[in-house]
UniProtKB/TrEMBL annotation, chain A:
Organism: Pseudonocardia adelaidensis
InterPro entries: Xdiol_dOase_suB
Gene3D superfamilies linked to this entry: LigB-like (3.40.830.10)
Listed name of the protein: Extradiol ring-cleavage dioxygenase class III enzyme subunit B domain-containing protein
Biased amino acid composition, Low complexity: 8-27
Stored SUPFAM superfamilies: LigB-like
Sequence ranges assigned to domain Extradiol ring-cleavage dioxygenase class III enzyme subunit B in this UniProt record: 52-326
Residues covered by region (Disordered): 1-30
Length: 337, 266
């Protein structure tokens, strides 16, 4: 566990930041009003309809060739993309949520848990690591009322927080990746939450803190009456190649980084498929230790905590590797809801 | 000439902590020295442009724009303009030299490419009048000591081939015990154990005990959560800082709990 996160959380400064001090843009004074599918809004009967492990490698969007992304590809990583097709089918029609809430490890915040409160984030996100694959034009709506409510709940539970109200902050590829693949039409409002750690070079995540953030997220969803789908934008095993083939989508070069990584991913996914999720409380940290799993950024723990660690198996919709990393699309639904 | 400078934007704060102001002044003084040394192009690596595949070399001739930081946006130093001229001749030569040494370079030229906060902060302090050109490589988080050293050697070789007078700048913090609170500048401090480690390593650096620095690097990285495991040091060594006559610590202090230093080699 990182010593970075052993500093006691303070809330007074976080509350002060909710008004957005010293930012150049005024805080929005109106809340987003949802369109279709908002039954239950304001009735304080909200619930989490489903939660998904929703990995974000930019290769998946690149392979899909959506009009929003500038680079063109010949495809690739189809099994994972078929998993997302199934995810999209499941959250369509009568199961359509009011909002998608995403926690992503590449909006890295050094201090505190930040929630995007910009009503209409739009711009181009050129990914500094994969600029050849990901130059995505984004334009989406934020459910500001829910975003504010998550901040208030998190603050009340003692987390350090910040409301991000700067439209010029570039939206990261992990946020866009999970959201696009779950809903490429972008016709659902969104709440985007940062990862309060740097899984790459500063520290490990504090998974216990992510549990608190999950609790805050659930309380906010219930209080605001939203029917929400949660997206945990994490890959699994995270060792990967350090060079790129001339053709990035060359599938003859794609396979698990090594057998150890693969076997640990299967061990985790088997436990997920068998349920209950409480087994994962111990297994996720072990999986992180064994595979440098990206779940150390905390998105999966946040999701399961928000869903009260449901006593159900997860439904693995797909598994595949991307530059050697393990990635799975997994669904949990809470029968208690 | 070569330098280690911090990449945290707090140095630009109007209401700066004493250490932030001292580090800012030291970084500016480093820029003065680079100009006095007749440097044409800064060869730079920044830990805040971290990558994982190959080694990206910036080849866009003119980087201009504004960086709004995803963490520090709420402060006056969270937004910075930049206007940087890239020495593309050196950049391409460097990329080729990297490839020739068995590593993979990736030439990077994309509109709206997000220049990292470390590079922007360093350039605005070192070169406020935009006199230098820049050759910039990313910091691969999986690169080992040998690879980082090769990157440095490749830069020096490419510059030599072009007859370019370069200054080498590594933009990196030291210990990274970020304070997990929204603090006022006066509350900034470094944990005692981190400061002890930082000072131990800085003593070795300014004593020019390169082998000792490299030997202790991994232990230091684990003990003090060092920014990118001090990968920039073997990079600096690769460019030849061990052949320079003197090494001076201009400043050391906290930036939001992290250790930051300005070191000059001449």
């Amino acid at each position: 566990m990182s010593r970075v996160f052993h500093v006691p959380a303070g809330t007074s400064a976080s509350r002060a930041r909710r008004a957005g001090p010293a930012t150049t843009s005024p805080a929005p004074n109106v809340s987003f009003v949802c369109g279709a599918g908002s039954a239950g809004r304001g009735s304080a009967s909200g619930r989490i309809v489903a939660g998904y492990l929703a990995p974000h490698p930019p290769h998946l969007i690149y392979a899909d060739n959506p009009e929003q992304n500038e680079p063109r590809s010949r495809g690739g990583w189809e099994v994972l993309r078929w998993g997302y097709e199934e995810l999209r089918r499941r959250i369509a029609g009568p199961n359509r949520p009011d909002v998608l809430v995403v926690h992503a490890p590449h909006w890295i915040t050094m201090v505190g848990h930040h929630v995007n409160c910009v009503p209409n984030p739009r711009g181009i996100s050129v990914e500094p690591i994969f600029p050849n694959l990901f130059r995505y034009h984004y334009d989406f709506r934020t459910d500001v009322e829910l975003a504010e409510s998550i901040l208030a709940e998190a603050d009340g539970l003692g987390l350090v927080t910040s409301a991000m109200r700067e439209p010029d902050v570039r939206v990261d590829y992990a946020t866009i990746g999970a959201l696009h693949l779950a809903n490429p039409a972008w016709d659902l409002p969104v709440v985007s939450i940062s990862a309060n750690n740097n899984p790459y070079f500063y520290s490990d995540a504090a998974l216990d803190e992510m549990e608190v953030l999950g609790e805050a997220t659930r309380r906010a969803i219930e209080k605001t009456g939203r029917n929400a789908v949660l997206l945990a934008s994490n890959s699994l095993s995270h060792l990967h190649w350090d060079v790129e083939p001339d053709l990035p989508e060359d599938m003859s070069r794609e396979h698990a980084y090594n057998q150890h990584q693969y076997e640990w991913d299967m061990r985790l996914l088997s436990a997920i498929r068998e349920g209950p999720t409480s087994r994962l409380r111990e297994l996720v940290p072990r999986h992180i230790e064994e595979t440098s799993s990206e779940t150390k950024a905390g998105s999966l723990s946040w999701l399961l905590s928000a869903m009260r660690w449901p006593d159900v198996p997860g439904d693995v919709l797909a598994y595949g590797t991307v530059i050697g990393t393990g990635n799975a699309v997994v669904e949990w639904t809470d029968r208690r809801a | 000439m070569a330098a280690l400078v911090p990449g945290m934007p707090h140095m630009l704060a109007a209401d700066a902590a004493p250490s932030w102001a001292r580090l800012r002044d030291a970084t500016r003084r480093t820029g003065d020295r680079l100009r006095a040394a007749g440097v044409e192009t800064l060869v730079m690596v920044s830990t805040q442009w971290f990558t994982v595949l190959g080694h990206q070399v910036q080849t866009d001739p003119h980087l201009v724009g504004e960086h709004c930081d995803e963490n520090w946006y709420g402060y006056d130093y969270g937004r910075q303009r930049y206007d940087i001229t890239v020495d593309t001749e050196l950049a391409f030569g460097w990329a080729d030299a990297i490839d020739a040494r068995g590593l993979q370079s990736r030439k990077t030229r994309y509109e709206c490419f997000p220049v990292d906060n470390g590079t922007v902060t360093a350039m605005n302090l070192l070169d406020p009048e935009h006199r230098f050109r820049l050759a910039l490589v990313s910091c691969n988080l999986y690169a080992g000591v040998d690879a980082m050293r090769v990157l440095g050697k490749a830069a020096a070789a490419a510059a030599s081939q072009l007859g370019r007078r370069i200054g080498v700048v590594a933009v990196s913090g030291l210990s990274s015990g970020l304070i997990q609170q929204w603090i006022s500048p006066g509350e900034d401090r470094i944990a005692d154990d981190h400061e002890a480690w930082d000072r131990r390593m800085l003593d070795l650096v300014i004593s020019r005990k390169h082998d000792d620095v490299l030997e202790l690097r991994e232990e230091y990285a684990r003990a003090a959560q060092v920014d990118s495991q001090l990968r920039v040091y073997p990079f600096l060594a690769g460019t030849g800082v061990d052949t320079l006559e003197s090494c001076e610590l201009l400043e050391y202090g906290p930036i939001w709990g992290t250790g930051a230093a300005v070191v000059n080699w001449q």
